[in-house]
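MODEL INPUT / OUTPUT PAIR
PAIR INDEX: 1
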Amino acid sequence: MNKTALTKTYTKDIQNFCLNSKKIVLSLATISFSASCTHATLTPEIETYEEANRHTKARSSVRSKSSNNETINNSQTSTKTISGTGNTLVIESGGAITISNGSQQAVNFQPNFSTSTFLNKGTLIGGNNTASVQLGADRNNGVTIETFDNQGIIGNGSSKFGVTVWGKDNSKSTINNFSNSGTIHSNAGESIYFGNANISSFANSGTIKSKQGAGVNISQGTSIGNFNNTGTIEGKKDGIQINANVKTLKNTGTIQGSAPIRSLGGTIETLINEGTMKGESIGIYMSGGLVKTLTNSGTINQNNSATWAAGIKLQNNSTIENIINTGSIHSNAFGISVTGGKFGTLTIKDGGQVYGKYSAIGVGRSQTLGDLYIDGSSSKIYGEENGIVLDANSRTQKIELKNGGIIKGKIHGIRLDNGASLSGEMILSGEGSRVEGGSGAGILNRSGKIEGSITIKDGATVTATSNHAIANYRSGSITGGITVSGKNTKLQGNISNIGNASIGSDIKIEGGAKVEGGLVNQGNGSISGSVQVSGGSSIDSITNEGNGVISGSITVDKNSKLDSITNTSTSSTGISGSITNNSDNKLEISNSGNIGGKIESTGSADMVISNSNGGTISGGISSSGSGSTSISNSQGSTINNGITVSGSAQVEISNQGSVGKDKNGNTVTNNGSGSVGIKDWLVSTDKNTGKLNTVVIGGSGKDNVKVENITVDQSNVDLEELNDINNIISGVNQNNIGNIGTNGSGEISLSFDPITGKLTTDFNLNASISGATFRSLISTTSRRSTFIDNVMGNSMQSFVLASSSKSQSIAMSEKGNLYADASDYIKSDLNNGSYGSNKEHSLFILPYTSSQNVELSLNEESKGHTKGTIIGYSTLKDSGIYGVYAGYEDTKMGSTYFDINNRTYYAGLKYFNTLFTTEKGQEVYIKAQGKAALIKNDLTEKIGNNEAKAEPNSYAYGVNTALGMNFISNKDIFSPEIGLAYEGGYTEAFSMKDTIGQATVKGGERTYANYLNLFSTKTSLTWFRDWLPNLKTSVELGAKFNINPKVEAEARFGNIKVSDEFDLPRVQKFVSTSFIVPVNEAFYFSLNYNGMFDKDGNTHTGFAQFNYLW
C-alpha cells in the first residue's frame, strides 16, 4: 500500500473516532496522533507511534510533539501538567519524572482535561505529600480519559499517594479503561484513589501497594463497571476500600491488607474471589453497603484472633444477599460473621470450607442469616468452639446439610442462643453428612426457637463426644419435632430436652436409623407429640425425669428396637399416652411417675416392667404376644385397670403395691394359653371399705395362674377376714396357692391347707414389739449391772491395798461382763508396792460409750449404741468399804421392724469386805450390791411404710452377792469367784399409736404390763500380772447362768388376746482385759475392754478410767 492510501485510511479512522469515540480501539501504534478530534489537523501523511518515536530518538530533543501529543523518554524533575483536550501522554520505559517538592505531582491532569490515552512505561514519582499522578482536583471538575495504562512504576513507595482521580457530583472523572500491569506504590496514602469517578473497566495484573494506607480506595460518588485483579493489591490498612458502586469485582490474584476488602457503603453487584485474599485484622469487611453475590473459589485468610474479627464480616446494617463458597475461608477468629447486618443465602459447596478459631459461622445478636446450604463430600464448616452459632435474638430461615458436608465444632456443632430463631427447617441428609460437637452438643438449642423441624436422613450423622447429639435446653423450643430417618443414619448421643425446653411435635426414629443414645426429657421439659420407633430403627432408651412431660404415646414397631423406658417424672401428667412394644427386642420399663395410658406387649419380645416409689400406670398392663413379661409393682405404687394376659405369653408378677380391677372386676385376667405366675402379692386393706382388696383371678385360662406367695398387709387389717381364703384371693385353683403370710415381724402368721381350704391365724409375742422391748431391756440391764460392778470395784479396792495384797480380790471379783475394768485387778499391788495406805476416799466421774448387737426382730441382729455418764464415791470404814453411785445413759437400737430408744436414770449402793485369810495367805472376800433404775422407752413399730409408737416406762431393781479367793504366786494372782444375783423389773402396759399411716391391725394393739423376776449365778476366773511397778495387766473369763430363763407376756391384737413366753439365753459368756498404769499416789489410769456374748447377740465396750483418791 502506498502512503496516499495509508493517509486516507487513517483520515477515515479519525473521522469515525470523532463521530463515535466509543467505537475506537486504540493501539500503541496510533497513540501519537489520536489525541483529540477537536484539534486534529489532517496531514497527507501521518506517522505511526513507532515511526514518530524513532524520529524523536534521532533528534537531540528529549520530547516530541505531534499536535498536542507528548512522549517522554528521558528523566525529568518537574511536574508534567496536562490541560485542555485532545492531549495524549506517553512515558517510555526510559522516561522518568521524579519530583523533590513534597506537594508537586509527577503528572497532573487538570480539571476538565480530556484525552484518549495515558500510557506509562517509565517511572513517575511525585512529592511525599501528594500523588505521583493526579487526575482532576479535589472538589473540582473531573477529567476524561479513554485509557489509563500503567506498565511502569508510579510512586515507588515515596509519594504519599500513587494515583488520585478526582471529580465532583456534577462533573465526575471518567475513565473507560484503567489498567495496571506495572507497579503503583504509595507511602502514607492510597496507592489509587477514586473520588467522584466513573470507571468502566479496572484491570490490575501488576502490583498496587501502599506502605501505610489502602491499596485502592473507591470512594463516594464513584462507580466501577468491572474491577478485575489478576496481580497484587496490598495495603497496610486495606487492600481495597469501597464506598461506591461496583458492578463486578473479581480477584484471581492477591489482595491483602488489614482488610483485603473493606466496604463502607455502596453496592457491589458481584464479588468474585478466585485468588487469594489475606487480612491481618479482618477479611472481607462490610461496614456498610450491599453485596448482591459473593462467590469465593479461592482463599480468604484472616490472621487476627480478636473476637470482633472474621474472614467475612458484616456490620453497620450491611448486607450480602448471596454467598457461594467453593474455596477456603480461614480465620483466627470467626470464619463468617454478622454483628450488624444481614446475610441472605449462604452456600458452601463443591469442597468449600469455612474455618474459625471461635466459630466458623457466627450470627450476632439480633442479626439475620437467610438460608444456609452446605453441599458436597469435602464441604466443611469447622470451628474450634462452634461450627455455627446464632446469638441471642438472631434469625435464620433454613439450614440444610447434604451430600457429605460437615459442620463441626469442638464445643457445639450448631448452637442457637437466647431467642435465636430458625424459622424454617434444619435438614441434614446424605451419606457422610455430619454435624459434630465436642464437649457441648452436636446441635444445641439454648433458649432458641426452631419453628420448623429437625430432620436427619439418608445416612447423615449427628454426634458429640459429650454424648449430647441434640440438646434442646432451658426455654428452647422445636415446634416441628425431630425425625431421624434412613439406613446408616445415626445420632451418636442423646436427644436431650432439658430445663423448660419443649418439642412441639412427634419424635420419629424410622427407616433403619440408629440413635446410639437415648431420648432424655428432664426438668420441666415437654414433648407434645408421640415417640415412634419403626422400620427396623433403634434407640437405646427413653428417660422422662424431673417434672418432664411426654404428652403422646411411645410405640416400638416390629423389627425395631428400644432397650428401656424410665419415667421418674414428678409431673401429674408424666407420660400421658400408652406404651406399646410390637417388636421382637426386649424392652425394660421402669416407672416411678405417672403413665396415663396402658403398657402393652404384642410382639415376641420379652418385657420387664418395674413400677416403684409411688408410680402409677393408669391404663393397666396387657401382654398379648409370645414373649415373656415380668411385672414388679412395689410398695406404694399403683396399677389401675388390672393385668391382662392373652396369646402364649408367659407372665410373672410380683406386687407389693396396689393393682386395680378391669371392667369385668378381675385383678388378673388370663385368656391365653400361657401361664401366669404370681411370685409374691401383697393384699392390703381398702381405706374406704375397711375390707381386704381381694385378688380376683379371671379369664379362660385362670387355672394356669399359679400363686407362689401371697402376703397380707397387717396395716389396719380386720383379723376376722383372715378366716376365709376367698377374702384374700379368689378365682384361682386353690391347689395352685403356695405360701400365705403377713408383712409384719412374725407376730401374726397364717397357714393354709389347700385340701380343706382352711385358713388359720397364729400369734407369736416373742416376735412382736413386746418381745423386742423385753430383749432390749434385758440386754441393757445386764450390761449396765456388770459395768457398775466393775467401775465401783475399781473405786473401792484401793483402800485396803497398803497392808495386804488381798485387796486385789476386789478387782478379781468385779469382772464378769462387758463393762469390767481391768484396773480392778491392780489396785492392791499398785498401792502396796508404791504408795502409802492413808487413803480413805475415792471419787470418779466417767463418761462412757458402748456398742451392742441385739436380736430385736427375730433372726435379725440389730446394732445399737449407748452413751452415758456415771459418778461414784467410795469410803473406807472399819466394817468394810462402802460405795454409792448414780448415772444416766441413752440407748438407741434399730431393726427392720422396730426401733427401740430409751433413756435410763440409775443409782445404787455397794459393799466389800475381806472375811479372812487362810494359813497359806489366800484371801477370802465378800461383796454385795443393791440397785434401781428408771427407764423411759421410745418404741416404734414399722409395717411397710407405716409406723406406730408407744412410750411406756420400765423400772429395774436388783441385788447380788459374791464370794471369791485370791491365790498369789510371785507376781501372779489367780482369783476364782462365784456369785448369786436377782434382777427384777416392771414395764407399764402400753398401746401402739399410729403415727405414719396405720401400722396396727384394726382395733389396735396393746401390750399388758410385764413383770420380770430373774435369778442367776456367776462364775469366773481372773489372772492378774504385775509386770513392772508402773505396768499391770489382767484377764478375766467367766459365764453367767440364768436359773429361770422364761418370762410370761400378754397382749391384744384387735379383739384377740394372746399370751406367750419369752426365752432368755441360758448362758451368757464374758471376757475382760485391762492395761493399768499407776500415775502417782492419788491417780491411776487404765485402758479397759469387756465383751459379752450369748445366742441373741453381743456387746463390746472399751473405756479409759481415772480414779482420784484422798
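PAIR INDEX: 2
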Amino acid sequence: LNAFYTANSSAISSAGNALASAANLDVKSIENTITTFAETSAVLMKGLDALGQLHPFVEVVAVMAFKLVITLDITRRQNNKKVLAVKIQMQDLMTILFQLRHIRDPEEKGPDGTTLKDRMSGLMESIAKDITTCGSACDVYMKKSFLAKTVKSKIYESRLAGYVMNFANDKKEIGFALKVHTALGVDAANKKLDGQDEHLKNIEGKIEALFRKLDTPREREVQKFIDDKGGAKACVDNEATLQELVLKSGESLADMDPTHSGNGDLVSAKKMLNRELAEDVDDVFKKNMKLFDRKMEMQSKQMADAISLTGEHIINVLSGGAHEKIVDADLQAIWKEQGWKGSVKARHFVLALNDYYTEKFTVFDTAVAIAESNAGSAPPSPLMSPTSPAVADPDLPAGAKPEDDRWALAYINIAHLQPILEAVDDDGTGFVSIKEANEFALSRPKGWSLLSWVAFWAAGWHASVTWYKNRIYNLLSAMMRLTQRVKAGNVQAADTYFAGPTIQRVELLLRLTCSAPGKVYDDARLTRITDAFQEMEEKKLLAELEGLAYELDDTATLRLITGPRRIERYVYPLIYRLLKRHFDIMRLACVHVLHETEFEVMSGSLATIFKAVDERTGNLEAIFKSTAINVKEHLGHFAFGMFQLAYGGHQRDPKNNTIYTFDEEDGFETDEDEDLGPDSDNDEPSTKAILARMDPNILHHKPENEPSGVYNFEKLHPPLATSADPLDGAWIGQLLVDGESFDEGAILLLLTRAGDKLSGGAESWMDLLSFAGMVDDSEGHKVVITIDWPDGYGDSEGKVEGSVPTVKKSDDASSDGSYEEVFSFIFRRTPSAVFRFRYTDAEFAKNHARARWGFAIAAMIDQVRQRRFSWPYLKKRFAERKNFIKLTKRQTIVERKLTPWTPMSSNDSTQLQTLRDALQPSDARFYHSVALFELQKVVNYGQKCDSCTHRITDVQLLMQCMDDQFRECINLCSECLDQTPTRDTFVHVRSHLLIKTFRRIHDGDLAWIVPEARRVAARVKKSLEDAKSLLSRLEEKKGSGHSKKRKAAAKLCCCCGKPVSCPFWVCIYCVEDTYICVDCDTKRLKPLPNNEDSHLLTHSLVEIFNSAPISEPLTTDSKLAELESKVLSLDSRMAALEEKLESRFTSLETVLTGIAEKLSSRSTA
C-alpha cells in the first residue's frame, strides 16, 4: 500500500483539494482537472482496494459506495461539468483515507480505549450514505433536459453545493477522528478543527464562483434571458416568450422530453416545464433513491462477476508466443498452427475454425475405426470425443456416450460467415484480436463446447431473433387493440405512448430485420442449443429487469444489463421483455386509472434502448467509412439489417407499417401459452377475468382510481398544537394588482416561525407550495418577513403591521432595473370558510359597524346552513362547483388551444375569477383537478387543425389530401368541416374524400384504413350512380309496381331508418355498407336495434359528399401544372389565330394590290 501511494502520490495529491484550488484557476485549468477525472478515479480506486485489504471496515462501506457511484458515472458518454466538480470533491474526501495506511491494525486502541474500527465505522456509514445520496441526486440532474436544469438552476446548484459541503465536512470529521486516535491530543485536534472550519467556509464561498466559471455561454445567455423576462414562471406561461426561450436553448421541442412520450410541440413543452417548476426537487431526489439503489446493487454484482471471471482465467502474458495468451485450448491450437500474431482477418479466422475441426473429427474417426478393427478391444471412451457435448442431455442414461457436436460443422461455412464474423469481431473492424477471441470463448455458457457456441451464432441466433420478432409483432398488435379498451382517464397517455417515436422505431426495427427460414428448426440439435441459450438469457434478463423495476432511465443503466457487449445481441430480447411488461400495464389501464408518468417511464425505457442503438450505429458508421465501405449498403446486411434505418435518420412511414398486416412466419407460430388476451373473441366475463389477473404491484405508482392529493393541505403542513408566535398558524389572503384580485385567487398560508427562520406551505386553486423565509423584527413593533418561493415564483417581502401583514412583491423586476412590476398581498386571520364574506377596505372605510355586522351575519347564516345541510346551501355549493368546472375546462381548452373551443367572454372570465376568490382554496383546488381530469379523458389526436390551428380533440377529420406515405395530410377539427385550407403542397376542396374518426388512428391502423376508405367510397359512389340510373328508368315507366324497386334502391340511415342523401357517412369497419345521415351523426345517435350488433359509434366513417368519382387530390404543384398547361394551350391558340390573321392579311394585301394595279391600268388607258 505504501509503495502504491508513493508511486501515485502526484495523482492522489491532485485529487485532494482539487475543487478548492480550482476556484482560483482559469477555466482552461479547471477543465483540465475535470478531464483527468476518470484517470484520477481509476488510480484512487486501485489504492482504496489495497487500503480495504488492510482495513476491511473501510472497504465494505465507504470505499464500495465510492467505487459504485464513480464506476456508474464513468460509463456515461457525457457528463455535466458541475456534476463532475461535485464528484471531484468526493475524490478529495476519499484521499484522506490514505492516512489510515500508517495504522496497521484496525483493532488498535486509541488513548480513550476505542479501537480504530469502532471509532470510524459509524463515520464510514455516514460517508457511504452521503456518497450514495449525492450519486442519486446527480443521476436525477443528469437525466433532466437542458431547459429543465436551467429553469431551476438555482435550486439544483444549491443542492449540488450542499453535497460539496457535506463531503468537505466528512473529510474534516475523518481528520478529527484520526488526530484523536493517534494520541495527538484533543486540544491539538480541536486547533486543527478550527483551521478546517475556516477551510470549509472558504470552500462554501468558492463553490458559487466555480459554478459560474463552469457555466457555458449557452447557459449564461439563457439564464440572462429568463431573468430579463421576469423569471422562469413568467417565461413558461407566455407562449411567445417560451418559443423564444426554446430557440435560445438550442433544444428541439422533442429533445426537451427525455422520455420521448410527448407530441414534440410547444403545448407539451409548456406542460413539461410547468411540471418541472411545480415539483419539489428534494422529493424527486428521494423518489429516485429506490431506482438508484437498484443500480448500485447491479453495479456491485457486475463488478463481482468481472473479478470472478478474471480470477478464473489468469492469462500468462509475460512469456511464450501470441497463442499463449488465448484461454481456450482449441483456439490456442488454431492460433499457434496458423502462426497468427496480435490479430487476424475475421474471414481467415472463420475458415481456419472449419479446417481445424474438420481435421480433428477426421483424426477421431480414424482412431475409432482402428479401435473397432481390433477384435475384442473395448469401445472407444467418450473422453476421446474431440469436443464436449453442446448441452448436457438429461435423458441420457448414466454412463452413456454423449453425442458429439460434429453436426455444428455444417454451420461453419461461407453461407454463415457474416453472423459468425459479427459474433467474434465485436468492434466490426474486420479483424479478430486476441482480446476478442478470448471474450468470445469466455462468453459461452458453462458446459458448451466452442464448436456449439460458434454454431449458435452462425444460425441459432438468427432463429432466436426471428422468434422474438414474431412475438413482438403479436404484442404490438395486441397493444394496438388495447388502446381502444383503456379507461377514459388513460386514453391520452396510452395513445401518446403507442403513437410515439419509440413504438415507431420498434416497428421499423422489426420490418427491416431479415427473418430466418422456418426450416432452421428442422435441425433438432440446433433447436436444442438455441432454446437452451434463449431460456438461460431470458432468465438472467428477467432478474435484471425486475431488479430495475423495468425502468431504463439512461444508457448507463442499460449497460448494467448488457455490460460492454454489442447492443444487437440484446436488443430483441430486451424489447420483447419490456413490451411484455408494458402490455400488462396497458391491461391494468383497462381497469385502473394510472399515474400520468406511468406511460412516460415506458416510453423512456424504450428510448434508452434506441439511444444505445444509435450509439452503436454511429460507431459502425465510423468503422465502415474508414474502410471505404458503403455504409448504408453494409448496414443492410449487418445484424440481419436491423440497423438500416438507424443510419441517416428515419421518418414515419404509415403506409408501409406492418403491425396490422403482419402474419406469423412458418416455424415461428404463437406458443400455446402466449397470453395476449383479451381479444375480439372474448366475451365480457372472460375479458374481465383476464384483466382481473393483472397485479397492480407492477406499477411504479399506485393506481389513481380515486382523487388523491386533495384536501390534504393540513396533513402535509399540520398546524401547531400551541401557537408559540403571533405569526404561527393560518393566514388567508389574495394577490392584488392595482387593488384588483389576481389570477391566484384566495391563498391559504400556514406559517411556522422558529427564531428568525420561517417555514410553511401555501394552497390555492392552482397547487400546493412549500416555502422557507426569514423574519426580521429589529425595527421594534414592525416585523419584516421574506418568503423564498420555489424557483420560478420569485421572492416576497413585506411587513406585519398589527394583525394585517402586507407583502410587497417585486420579483418580476428586470435584471437591469428597466422595469418593476409590483404586486401586493393582503393576508388576514379570517377563517378560510368565511373569507368570502369579509368586507373590503373600501366598505370598512365607509362604515365600520355596517361592514362588520354584514360580515358577521353572512358568515353565521352560511355556517348554520352548512351544519344543517340545508338545500339552499347544497344547491349553491353544487352550482358553484358545476360552474367552476365548466369555466375552468373552457379556459383550459382555450389556453391549450384544443378543439372544439369557445372563446371566454369578459363575463365568463369575471365569473371564474370571482369563484377562485370566493371558494376555499381546498375546494377550488379539488374542482380544478376534476376539470383537468375531465379533459384528460378526451381523445387527443396529436395533430393540429389546418384551418383554426388548434390541437384536435374529440373528433378528427383526415382529408383525401395526403402524401403517398400517409405521413402528411390536411387535418380538420369538427368545427372546421366546411373549411378549405391549404398545407404544404396540398389544396383542399370541400368535395374531397374525408375520413372521420372518434379515436386516435395509429400508424398500424392508418396503413389499412386509408386504402379501405377509398375502396368503400368508390364502391358506394358507383352504387349511387347505379341507383340514380335505376331510379331514372323507373321514373320513365312511372308504374306503381316499381315502388319496391325504388325502395330497394334507396340507402337508409342505420340510426333513423330514413333514406340518406349526399352528403352522408359510410362506416369503414362494417362488412355490409352502413350509412349514417348527417343529422344522426351530429347527434351521435346509436344504431337501430337491427343494426346495433354490427355498427359501433367508435367506428371510423368516410364521407360521401356527392356521387362523382373520386378525383386525385389537388396539390399546388398540380394546380400550377394545370395553369401552365392552360397558358400553353392559350399560347398555341393565340399563335394559330395570329397565323390565321397573318394569312388573311396577306390575302387581303394581295387583293388590294391587284385592285390597285387594275385601277392604275384603267387610269392609264
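PAIR 2 NOTE: The two ends are 143 Å apart (CA to CA).
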